[in-house]
User: Fold these one by one.
Assistant:
Number 1:
Amino acid sequence: KKTENQILVIFGASGDLTARKLVPSLFNLFISGHLPENFVVLGASRSDMTDTAFRKKVVTESTYLEKKLEKLDKEKIEAFSNKFFYEDLGGSYDTDYTRLRKRVEDLKNKYNTSGNIIYYLSTPPTLYETIAQRLADAGMNTQNNGWKRLIVEKPFGYSLETAKQLNKGLQQFFKEHQIYRIDHYLGKETVQNLLVTRFANSIFEPLWNRNYIHHVEITNAESVGVEKRGGYYDKSGALRDMFQNHLLQIVSLVVMEPPISDAPEDIRNEKVKAIKSIRVMKSEEELYENTIRAQYVASTIDGDKVKGYREEEGVDANSTTETFAAVKFFVDNWRWKDVPFYVRTAKRMPTKVTEVVIHFKTPHHQIFKDSGMENRDNKLIIRIQPDEGILIKFGVKVPGQGFKVERANLDFYYSSLAETYVMEAYERLILDAMQGDATLYARADEVEAAWEFVDPILDYWEKGKDVRMYGYAAGVWGPENSHDLIDGIGEWRNPGP
Ligand code: BG6
């Protein structure tokens, strides 16, 4: 696809995300020849900085580029960093953008970038609407001399109500098709491959329903704690930070019906339908039965003392924010009726891993009794990270007399495609936005549908009766009680490191 000439304006450019994610992604796009011929980046923030200082801050001092610097010729780095410019907003985002507009126009004329502009909002979300409004006030949202797109980072709201407000607020100044809500999990190859696994093969989809699938399990584990983001995390928690967005996005791709084509709106329409068919839990009994939250407590991992969540910097000493969340739910539609889904996400688990496990039913009639195969030994495991791949577990006959059955694996790992360059999630998503492809971005109704499901859980956890906050030692697979959720069905699959 062609990438038209354009300007990328980054609000909150002096922040961490620019140096950590955006600059490295842009750099890779530059090296691989994906950036348009005429292209500049204009950083905008409150603080005062020269272009040179900005380049130094985000480009030259980017740890990512620093690592690469030695291997790369200086000219390349310089050519790349020469694309970066900076304009301060005079101490506040809520200000007149006339000067910013003038700067954008000067750059456009000087570098022949045309009037196409992406505004990337990498500021606290409380500023999103203000920035959109100020852009509109300055006439910077009009599309008559080139397209304008707005990329916003998560969180998209804090609850259903605030998400709706945010969507409405932004839509006053930008049309929905101009708004790109980034969810970096959709930029992961293995997440996109869920679509290909299901809809480009004829061996999986016929089984992909309640007749053959017993239950679905999704685990997202991180070994790190809240790191330096205690202040943010304590107001968010695992359900808002991971589940409402990344995990429900994965769920939507597992659950969705085949789209009529791979066009962005065809795919997004099916995803919204999928999220809307998740049964919203309403009664306290349901919420009590089907949700578990917990916090990690101090422990020793490999001989190192590790702090408990409540001791982390920026975290309230009496915090009731969860660092572990597990939810069981059903999807009320033709395909999934009565198939339970178990989804959990947590910090400070034994390892970092994200995977989807499709547990197939046991064959209706067991011929090979005492065969050594347990119930439901057919599994399809979609390993999202690390060791990205697809694993199939099935039974084979042990050579010799009788019919002893043993488990075998048919495993595919992405690493075996050594020749293929796999783009980083951000790299892929930024390039898509540059090309106007919104397939891998979340639409307003999708985000709201996800909140519809999550809101009652958060509400219950905050105010409900009998809600418990369990503890788990940092470095284990969550609280003991999380097994209760999946009891009677089996056990959580805890993949090794
Ligand atoms: C972010 C969350 O969206 O995703 C973080 O805010 C989390 O808390 C991160 O660590 C995980 O992303 P990944 O790509 O490392 O799985």
Number 2:
Amino acid sequence: NKGDFPHYMLKEIYEQTETIQDAMRGRLSREEATSKLGGLEMTNAELRSVERIILTGCGTASHAAMVGEYIIEELAHVPTEVEFASEFRYRNMPLPKDSLVFVISQSGETADTLAALRESQRKGHRTLGVCNNVASTIARESDGGVYMHAGPEIGVAATKSFTSQVTILTLIGLLLGRIRHMSTTEGLRIIDELEAIPAKVAKILEQTDHIKKIAEKYSGAHSMMFLGRQFNYPVALEGALKMKEISYIHASGHPSAELKHGVIALISADVPSVFIAPDDSVFEKNVSNIEEVRARKGPIISIATEGNTKIEKVSDDVIFIPPCPDFLSPILTSIPLQLLAYHTAVTLGCDVDKPRNLAKSVTVE
Ligand code: M6R
């Protein structure tokens, strides 16, 4: 049921104030300044002996995994790697004995992800699921895991499942950090910041009309660039995927600094660039990359932090997000990009919920 929404995708984008909360519900302990993830079915001693983490999935889930790599390394200092599930199943990656593998899948039925799960288990690694569908094959076959509790996602373009996955990966980072080196004070600060996220999401959603105008302005583009650094590099990939999937505009995501290594050749007055440039440790670096694009007359749409006046001077259009710590910014920056893709596709008259050539769950290899 779409309720008052014209499309499932829009409804699911709006549900994120709730679904992010649902991903955390009952899982945060102020008393111990950490997260509680009983579904992992691992003792603290077992979790402490984890030497390496592998995150795998397809499409949007692989982008959430890439954000998770940055988050887990930042919060827990555990070496983390991401591999596409389709590559993992054939790659035969050498892994230390104490590796922990997470397979991430909204549907829990993606063929490549399921095959990665089975291959990982065959090699003897503890393999956990991050799934939304509790009745799915991946949920059943994994050695434990964390459910998203996001409710059904009907729109083919994954939206709320991405922010749920990133929230859960943050809880995993917090848990692993707290049993290693992280202080109580730091743990509590992270809990406060996590709990503040849903209200910040609501503030972003209020800007839908502003985002719609930007979408209309650039909907004639034949190609778009999405650029970000650090935690927001995977968000650039995700923003580009959303745009391609539902509006059929060619889009590509890159780490901002890779521009000068080739991508900049594509920049011209009719190729807009979306820069994900919140107030983080690499903000100034992003601004230099924006200047490089401006010098080639490329239009700039920036996703930036409220109150940043510098960004307005170098951008044609800006969408603001509330301030937050660097590692949580992907949850916020991904939302304007979902809305940008949505409004662009609607402007172009595309079937947003059922884009051509795509199925919600890819159960063939
Ligand atoms: O159900 P899953 O999370 O395993 O699905 C993985 C991908 O097929 C999925 O994220 C796909 O990329 C979406 N259409 C992206 O919007």
